Amino acid sequence: MLEKNAAQDLTEDANSTISPPATDIDPVEVQEERRRRLAASQDEELRWAHLKAVLRGEESKLSYIDARNAWKIADKFVLSEDNVLCFLGVSHRWKAGERRDDAATSDTNNDDSGGATELSRLP
Question: Model-level pTM greater than 0.70?
Answer without folding.
Answer: no
